[in-house]
């Protein structure tokens, strides 16, 4: 009988495209390493290809913006123009050469786009808090088109598939939020209308990409004006339709309970593992830092796990996870250690935003390895 730890190293097939050789997916991680115009940098290339070499079954890019006005952070990878094709093609080929599935995450930050980067941010509805303006109906239709065009561009670059970023309060999650989305056209009001933009992107990608092109979706069920029951209903409908290959649930902590009082008493994850999923694969993200926790998630109904923090600390986390007792290096770690793990100085600087992650000068007495 296969143990849950052994199951971490079993292949995972999808309806479309290649199988993952194991159950470890690299989480899409902001790293601020690419060029100001969205072109791939050598630093970002090294960071991602090192994870593919390290054994991840699927290597996903950071969030790549599908419109210039959708940029969410400095040094963000772009997928909104053909000028990005050269770098993306190089990246996809190198990831696949290491036996890892190559995926690009498609993103638009909406009202979370910094004004200093985009000028005028946009949002489903006018947002006085951020100064973002509402999109017209035609602009929402263009947003859908630009997500689909980004998927077509990713396919042209050689990626095995794309993931739609519908989580973390970015523009697609803003559409899902009844607090942020106060539209009165077909993209606002009912949950069906608020989810329409995501469903139209899914349909567009399926219609215009090749039959074996992989498609995933990332959702988060809390914060940013989202309601757990609504996100669960959206997930259930998308799983029922069976048009995506995998659903990636970003939970912040895979063992936490919901924040909404009426749903407490069980894990947040369980609201999604209990859904009928057909041939769609379900993954979870949120503080999965050890092989033991990863195996536990499979036992609790996930098909795969997404690794973020532990993948930053160990480019070869999947290989190290063959030891069931493996635990990542203790925090904080030195900039020199992170450089060894493929992080550029800009990425290390970004990681300073994570409290207690990077050792400050007075703490930097630990060995480099």
Number of DSSP-assigned strands: 10
User: How confident is the prediction overall: mean pLDDT?
Assistant: 96
Beta strand %: 5-15%
Low-confidence runs of at least 5 consecutive residues: none
The CATH class is Alpha Beta
Characterize the largest beta sheet: strand count, sense, and whether it forms a barrel.
8 strands, parallel
Order of helices and strands: HEHEHEHEEHEHHEHEHEHEHHHH
CATH superfamily: Aldolase class I
Strands side by side in the biggest sheet:
1-10-9-8-7-6-3-2
Structure overview:
With 369 residues, the chain is α/β, with parallel strands linked by helices. It has a single domain, classed as TIM Barrel (Alpha-Beta Barrel). The chain is 34% helix and 13% strand. It contains 14 helices and 10 strands. The strands form 2 sheets. The chain has an 8-stranded parallel sheet. The longest helix is centred in the middle third of the chain and has 21 residues. It is globular.
Which helices and strands, and how do they pair?
Elements: H1 4-7, E1 24-26, H2 42-53, E2 58-65, H3 85-97, E3 101-107, H4 115-118, E4 122-123, E5 133-134, H5 137-157, E6 161-165, H6 171-176, H7 191-208, E7 214-219, H8 228-241, E8 246-250, H9 270-273, E9 281-285, H10 291-299, E10 304-307, H11 309-313, H12 317-320, H13 335-340, H14 345-351
Parallel strand pairs: 1-10, 2-3, 3-6, 4-5, 6-7, 7-8, 8-9, 9-10
Helix pairs in contact: 2-3, 3-5, 5-7
């Amino acid at each position: 009988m296969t143990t849950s730890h052994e199951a971490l190293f079993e292949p995972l097939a999808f309806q479309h495209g290649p199988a993952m050789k194991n159950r470890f997916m690299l989480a899409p991680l902001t790293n601020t390493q690419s060029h100001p115009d969205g072109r791939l940098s050598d630093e970002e290339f090294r960071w991602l290809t090192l994870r593919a070499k390290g054994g991840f079954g699927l290597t996903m890019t950071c969030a790549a913006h599908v419109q210039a006005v959708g940029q969410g952070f400095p040094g963000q990878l772009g997928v909104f123009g053909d000028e990005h094709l050269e770098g993306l093609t190089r990246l996809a080929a190198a990831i696949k050469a290491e036996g890892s599935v190559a995926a690009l995450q498609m993103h638009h930050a909406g009202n979370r786009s910094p004004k200093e980067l985009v000028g005028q941010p946009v949002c489903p509805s006018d947002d006085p808090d951020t100064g973002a303006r509402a999109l017209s109906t035609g602009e929402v239709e263009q947003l859908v088109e630009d997500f689909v065009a980004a998927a077509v561009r990713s396919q042209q670059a050689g990626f095995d598939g794309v993931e739609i970023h519908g989580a973390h309060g970015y523009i697609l999650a803003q559409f899902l939020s009844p607090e942020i989305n106060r539209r009165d056209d077909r993209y606002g009001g009912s949950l069906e209308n608020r989810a329409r933009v995501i469903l139209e992107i899914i349909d567009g990608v399926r219609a215009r990409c090749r039959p074996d092109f992989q498609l995933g979706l990332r959702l988060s069920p809390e914060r940013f004006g989202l309601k757990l029951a609504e996100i669960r209903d959206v997930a259930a409908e998308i799983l029922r339709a069976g048009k995506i290959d995998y659903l990636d649930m970003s939970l912040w902590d895979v063992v936490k309970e919901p924040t909404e009082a009426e749903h407490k008493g069980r894990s947040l994850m369980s609201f999604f593992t209990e859904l009928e999923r057909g041939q769609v694969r379900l993954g979870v993200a949120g503080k999965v830092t050890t092989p033991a926790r990863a195996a536990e998630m499979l036992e609790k109904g996930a098909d795969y796990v997404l690794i973020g923090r532990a993948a930053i600390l160990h480019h070869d986390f999947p290989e190290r996870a063959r030891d069931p007792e493996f635990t990542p290096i203790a925090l904080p770690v030195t900039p020199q250690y992170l450089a060894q793990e493929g992080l550029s100085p800009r990425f290390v600087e970004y990681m300073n935003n994570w409290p207690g992650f990077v050792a400050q000068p007075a703490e930097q007495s630990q060995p480099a390895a």
